[in-house]
Amino acid sequence: MEGIAKRAGVSKVTLYRRYTDLPGLIMAYVNFHTDQALHAAPQLAKPPAPLTDRQALQDHLSALGYQVLCLITRPDVVLFDNAVSAAQRQYPDIAAALYQAGPAKVLSTLSKNLADYLTEHHLSIEADAAAQMLFALWKGGFYEELQMTGRMRLSPKALQEHVNSRTGWFLAMLQADS
């Protein structure tokens, strides 16, 4: 906490008043960045409701996916995630809370965005399962390499194309299954 206070240019007392301990500060960090990613693009601030039109849903999910992947592929976030993973045995409560503040919040948002579409189109998959599948599709093909090597091989444009194609493929598969 002392090093963080010094780097932030505030006193340690000020930092402790705002965040009672290091886990509280870490949670604030994760919550802030997750919320920022979930609402960064103008179309994410207030999604059209309900999202029952395929193109509207695809546009919305693609924008959301791009923002989330931009966050989780940042070098500082990759290092942070790797550190949390390495320390989760020693600090399981912190790791679980961080999961709820980050990935679980993203999955919940995805599930809510998919629910109306799935109901309207009489699709049998549960929204939570669909959200997990889409999130896995977005990360597939490059994210594991990034976590292990720290090397991001997709440019911002390629990342956007990756998310767009995976989202379109996912929605097409949902329709094909109905």
Automatic annotation (TrEMBL):
Signal peptide: none annotated. The keyword Transmembrane does not apply. Keywords: DNA-binding. InterPro entries: Homeodomain-like_sf, HTH_TetR, TetR_C_Proteobacteria. It holds the Pfam family TetR_C_7. Residues 1-37 form the HTH tetR-type domain. It comes from the Bacteria. This is HTH tetR-type domain-containing protein.
